[in-house]
Design a protein that fits this description.
By secondary structure, the protein is mainly alpha-helical. The chain is built from six helices and no strands.
C-alpha cells in the first residue's frame, strides 16, 4: 500500500536502531542550543521518513544533521543581523554626533558613540530616545536597515551559501531515499 496508511508489513521503526547510534552522534552544540531540540528535530525527521533499510537510515541521519545545520545557520544569520543593526545605529550616530568634533576629543566622542549604540541595543528607553534623535535627522528604520545590509553583505553572502548548500544536499538525500524506495518496489514486483 502506498497511501497514507502503512500496512502491518510496512510499519517501520522510527527511533534510531542501536547499531546506527555510533554513526549519529549529537552535534557539538553552540551556546544557546539544546540537545533536546536536536533530538526532537531528529526524531520528527525519522518519524516522517520512516527509514526501511540500512541505507535509508544512513540517509535519514544525514537529512537530520543537515536540517539542524539549516536551523543553526538561520539562527546565526538572525543574530548577525542584530549585531550589524547595532553597528548601523553606531554609524548613524557617528554621522550626526561626530560632525564638528575637535580632533582632540574624537577618541572620547567615538567611545560615547559606541556606548550609545550599545545602550540602544539593551535599553528600551535609550533606544526610543536614540530612534527619535535619528529620525529628527531623517534617519528612519529603512535607512538603518539599508546600512545593516550594506555592512553585512559579505557575511550574508556566506550564510546564504551555507544555507543553499545544506538545503541542496538535503533535497538530494530526500530524492535518494525516494529512489531507493522506488528501486526496491520495482525489485519486489512480479514481472508479467
Amino acid at each position: 500500500m502506498t497511501g497514507l496508511f502503512q500496512t502491518t508489513r510496512e510499519v517501520t521503526v522510527t527511533t534510531l536502531p542501536d547499531e546506527f547510534e555510533a554513526l549519529a552522534p549529537p552535534p557539538l552544540l553552540l551556546p544557546g542550543e539544546h540537545l533536546s531540540d536536536y533530538q526532537g528535530l531528529r526524531q520528527a525527521i525519522f518519524a516522517d521518513l520512516a527509514p526501511r533499510s540500512a541505507i535509508e537510515w544512513l540517509l535519514a541521519i544525514d537529512v537530520a544533521e543537515l536540517s539542524w545545520d539549516v536551523q543553526r545557520y538561520r539562527m546565526l544569520r538572525h543574530k548577525l543581523l542584530e549585531t550589524y543593526r547595532q553597528k548601523a545605529i553606531e554609524a548613524a550616530l557617528r554621522r550626526i554626533d561626530m560632525v564638528g568634533v575637535d580632533p582632540d576629543f574624537e577618541e572620547q566622542a567615538e567611545y560615547y558613540t559606541r556606548q550609545n549604540a550599545l545602550s540602544w541595543r539593551i535599553d528600551h528607553v535609550a533606544a526610543t530616545e536614540i530612534n527619535a534623535r535619528l529620525a529628527s535627522y531623517g534617519c528612519d528604520a529603512h535607512t538603518i536597515n539599508t546600512e545593516v545590509y550594506v555592512q553585512a553583505r559579505d557575511i550574508l553572502v556566506l550564510f546564504e551559501g551555507l544555507l543553499n548548500a545544506a538545503q541542496t544536499k538535503r533535497m538530494l538525500l530526500l530524492r535518494e531515499i525516494r529512489n531507493q524506495r522506488l528501486a526496491s518496489g520495482l525489485m519486489r514486483r512480479p514481472r508479467v
